[in-house]
Amino acid sequence: MTSESDIRRLAERYGPAWNDRDLDAIMSLHTDDTAFRLHLLDAPDIVGREAVREAFAGLIEAWPDIHFATEQLSYGTGFFVHRYVMSGTLACPMPFGALIAYPTGDGISLTGADVITVVAGKVHRKDTYLDIASAQQQLGLLDGPSNPAQVQGRR
């Protein structure tokens, strides 16, 4: 079992790796059978080192200046929870269900939390929860029919 002090050290390395957008450093902190789920409109679990790496690479490509400002880190037996404010600028089209957000050049900021399960001192599972409604609003997706460029198929 991983000690709480080991989990704290992992958390202290994990956040900076993401803020550096260093995919190799991020993945070095994950188990081989790692899993990731972005809890967004029934998104599936992504399982395995290569699949998770590809998903993370896509997020970094979509948000090349992504940054996580920690609000709170909480620890328990075999896990930690990271509550943060995520900020970034969308750089490529991103689907939100039937809607697609297009880059505006404006940065957005939203709250989120990761629940991270730790096995043998590494991230075994990462469940990410984001304030998606805030993201959609900031990206113009909640403006209704007056913003047809944001609706899929009307670009």
Automatic annotation (TrEMBL):
This is SnoaL-like domain-containing protein. Residues 12-123 form the SnoaL-like domain. InterPro entries: NTF2-like_dom_sf, SnoaL-like. It holds the Pfam family SnoaL_2. Gene3D superfamilies: 3.10.450.50.
